[in-house]
Amino acid sequence: MEFLAKRRTKYEIYADLLEIVARRGYCRLTRASYGANLPVDRAKKSLAFLASRGFVKEESVDDSKIYRITKRGLEYLETFKQMRKLFAALDEKILPAQARIQAKLTLRAKEAKVGEDVNLEIELINVGNAPAFLTKVEKFLPAGFELVAKPDYCHLEDAYLDMKRKKLDLLRTEEIRLTLRSMDKGTFSIKPKITYVDGAGRQLFCEPEPVTISILESVAGRVSTGYRDLDSLLLGGIPENYAVILTSISCDERDLLIKRFLEAGVKEGQVTFYVTIEASGVKNLAEEFQSTFYLFVCNPQADTIIESLPNVFKLKGVENLTDINIALTSAFRKLDASLRGPRRACIEIISDVLLQHHAVQTRRWLTGLIPELRSKSFTTLTVMNPQMHPPEEVQAILDLFEGEITIYEKRTKKGLEKNLRIKKMYNQKYLESEMSLIKKRLQI
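The structure assignment produced for this chain is given below.
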């Protein structure tokens, strides 16, 4: 079809514009301009002419003009296609059938913070004269980025997207919407390579103009949870001096998150308090970091659980809350005044206290403890199993905290999986995305 290699006539331009409008149902000027491969001013002039002749209809939506094809426009388009086939049949020189893909990248925003979602759209159009079969998209993930969301028909294989030979007919478009996320700051270039084949099995490539994204530092004044994925949702970590409650059933993922939180504190040289019933998994921290890690074991068997150390406080249980307060006060007095900066505390006995003392007494205790920790520059993570208590008692405790993070089970094709979501973080920015908790990643 030699006409494809020549400069288009005005009738071919009208047909291309009508094809774009008809295919999308309605179309804005910029989309029609790109789809028909025309400058915006020329596309605007041509659409205005088509509207004046009744081939398209102009409408106003949200202070923006859109175009819809009319019955007369559809008749022209169908007639033009039939005539083009007849002209091609009479032409002496017929170009071999070949697919040809053009691509355009679009970023919704040119900047994002560490851990924020980056929305990338890859728009493909087949401007050839034969169908194309999309095979893969490579090099779309800069170093330090991860893929968060993709179309269902795509499959991620190592570092490329398997497109499953998705068919793209001539003059048709395909929009591949991807969500990316970076854990590193900096300026990154996104320059994917699209591979496709034609009907003869020939492998062809398309490389669109690259786009640039700037990833900025996360929000200042955050305390790392020790788990990179959770820090991403929190835009850097828990806000300093906040009291946050982690609601979760008893599970390995919860325990691993707690361990990550404690280890992050001592490794950064922060004073770290841990109030718990059990001390399994943290004995080495108590032994190695005696000047910064303070362990409070509320268990009648504390003497058999862990050896006596200057930074270990053994209590008979949670029956006497005053004893716990006295132990905390004693630890406050031992703190090295030269250790400046954020401090952190993990209180893992909330469910035990609530079972023993119920909502009124537990609220009274926490109402005194939380401000005391905040006044001493502690960022506090408390832990509660909501399934162990009546809903009204759970709510009575949740109301005391500025933030809430929840771990819950979700049924998927692979079975039950643990997921995490931030439910609230008062007056602070965070991502509302759901995150799958993978035990292997937590154990690294």
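Interim note for the steering committee: The chain has three domains: 2-90, 101-216, 222-443. The radius of gyration is 31 Å.
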